[in-house]
Write a structure and sequence with these properties.
- With 86 residues, the protein is mostly helical.
- It has one domain.
- It has three helices and three strands, in the order βαααββ.
- A three-stranded parallel sheet has the order 1-2-3, with no helix packed on it.
- The protein is globular and about 35 Å long.
- The N and C termini lie far apart (26 Å).
């Protein structure tokens, strides 16, 4: 896993849409010089299951900290941190 804990991604509202998360993952992988094959494999793992699994794979892949200004009903609480200052 990459350690990018200094980077935070707000997943509340439209910013938490699965397609937005996937787009962020693709951008990060390009910046980290992942090969096309490794990008494809990572994207396949992220879309293979449900939303919480996508978020788990995203964090595992990027090390980015997921945050929200409030509790999110449909997201496993261990996947993100509440940051009321957002």
């Amino acid at each position: 896993m990459v350690t990018n804990s200094m980077f935070k991604l707000d997943i509340s509202g439209p910013k938490g849409n699965a397609f937005v998360i996937l787009g962020n993952a693709k951008d990060i992988m390009k910046k980290m010089a992942f090969s096309e094959d490794n990008q494809d494999k990572a994207m396949s793992r992220m879309i293979a299951s449900d939303y919480n699994s996508l978020l788990r794979e995203f964090v595992k892949l990027t090390g980015v900290q997921l945050v929200s200004p409030h509790e999110l009903d449909s997201v496993d609480p261990e996947l993100y941190t509440i940051d009321e200052e957002l």
